[in-house]
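User: Fold this; tokens only.

Assistant: Input:
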Amino acid sequence: MILAVAGGKGGVGKSTLAYNLGAALDALVVDADLAMANLPGGRERGPDLHDVLAGRADPTEAIRPGQVDLLPCGRSLSGARLADVRRLREAVAVPGYDRVVIDSPAGLRADAGVPLAISEACVLAASPARWALADAMAARELARELDCGLAAVALNRVVEEPPTRAVGRALGAQATAVPADPRLARSIPREEPVVDAAPSSSAARAVGALARAVRRCGLE
């Protein structure tokens, strides 16, 4: 199973969702944002996704094991320039991992489409604001064009009752409200997924609901 976490707009908490979904699904999480990596990469120095996509390292060499196993991405512009995104499918096919969650680049650039093109399905991360629906719709259309199914929509950082039913109807998938919980915000820098740090919290239940939606798509 390869699952992309995507979004039509940056700053909606896509990387946080990818990290926490990886924990809920017991999956390898790959940071495929070649120019603006967000997932932890400093557990130990070594090769990263830039090196793998440039043909300088094997994917198994770049994995950082932890509570969530990661294949991090480099943060240098020179590394991004040398990375051949066409190698991404090969890079994420790591022996020993049946499930892979890809943190995709935001927006509708060409490199944002590659994770969708190699994934069976995606989870769209969106702002709960009504005006943000257009961004989610654009990302949904890109996924459809690339034959990537939509497993669920995450309305992230919710502080009020969100329009989950309306969004779900518009996009054609279950929409789940993910609360603006500081434990989610801390999960990446502390490397503590909320399903482990606070399993009974509303945030953990929301992540669990997204994981169940992925499983219902027949991706397990």
